[in-house]
Design goal:
The chain has about 250 residues and is α/β, with parallel strands linked by helices. It has helices at about 25-35, 50-55, 60-65, 75-85, 95-110, 120-130, 150-160, 175-180, 195-200, 210-215, 220-225, 230-235, 235-245; strands at about 10-15, 20, 40-45, 70-75, 110-115, 135-140, 165-170, 190-195. The strands form two sheets. Strands 4-3-8-7-5-6 form a six-stranded parallel beta sheet, sandwiched between helices. A hairpin with a 2-residue loop joins strand 1 (about 10-15) and strand 2. The longest helix has 15 residues, at about 95-110.
Length: about 250
């Protein structure tokens, strides 16, 4: 992975074998700016409980998580596990990270590219985020409905836009594997998987009301809107069990 900086550069807590960053959102954004300035390619992962359980049985995904420049705690389950280990941490979600980096783009001119979701969704998300953050420098979009055999071709298209930051919204583990396999080829200094974030910012999917976010039940809201996420929710009890086992 060209230029990849190791997680040891930042404070971490081990959760199921993966070093998860203890940086808050502002600290994570500072780190992102440092990685952009390095002029080399880096992968960030937003690690949720279901993804960490998947990594227990997916060796490639586990290697990606462990070698990423930063793995943020992107679920209340991961935050709970880290707090059990004595860390005072906050959730740093993909959807919030995308929003804040777009704000930085408006302020500092960072070039961002949106890749993922159904045809038309990335472009609509870009338009809405440029209205939300006037000056946000979105240099390209592409849908996420293409086979893995076309990864290199899509990476070349991304590279022509010369992005500083690439957001990939294709779900775990597809997005992480795309980034890892094309890191350096896309030209992005920072690439991060952001799950369903483009659906949220396009308006296609509504984010949970602030009250539900405040009581840390956003996963319930997502499940109600999309029952297909039940398979992901079923992994949560195993996550809790694995964490309790590992802390004995």
């Amino acid at each position: 992975m060209t230029g990849q900086r190791t997680l040891s550069a930042y404070p971490t807590i081990n959760v199921l074998g993966v070093p998860i960053s203890t940086l808050d959102m502002d600290g994570t954004l500072d780190a992102v700016e440092s990685l952009i300035a390095s002029k080399t390619a880096h992968q960030l992962v937003t690690a949720d409980a279901a993804g960490l359980v998947q990594a227990l049985e997916d060796a490639e995904l586990a290697r990606i998580y462990r070698s990423s420049a930063i793995a943020t705690p992107d679920s209340q389950g991961v935050v709970w596990a880290m707090k059990r280990a004595g860390a005072n941490v906050q959730r740093v979600s993909g959807v919030d990270l995308l929003d804040r980096i777009c704000a930085l783009s408006a302020d500092k001119g960072y070039r961002v590219f949106f890749l993922g979701a159904e045809p038309g969704v990335a472009q609509l998300a870009a338009e809405r985020l440029m209205l939300r953050h006037p000056g946000c420098n979105v240099v390209g979009t592409h849908h996420g409905f293409f086979p893995a055999e076309d990864d290199s071709l899509v990476a070349q298209e991304v590279a022509r836009a010369k992005p500083d930051v690439l957001f990939v919204a294709m779900g775990i583990p597809r997005q992480e594997k795309f980034i890892a396999r094309t890191l350096g080829a896309t030209g992005a200094k920072v690439s991060v998987g952001v799950g369903g974030s483009l659906d949220v910012f396009s308006g296609r999917v509504k984010r949970a009301p602030r009250l539900i976010q405040a009581v840390k039940a956003e996963w319930v809201w997502r499940l109600l809107l999309n029952p297909k996420k039940l398979d992901k929710v079923r992994l949560l009890p195993r996550f809790a069990l694995e964490v309790l086992r590992s802390s004995r």
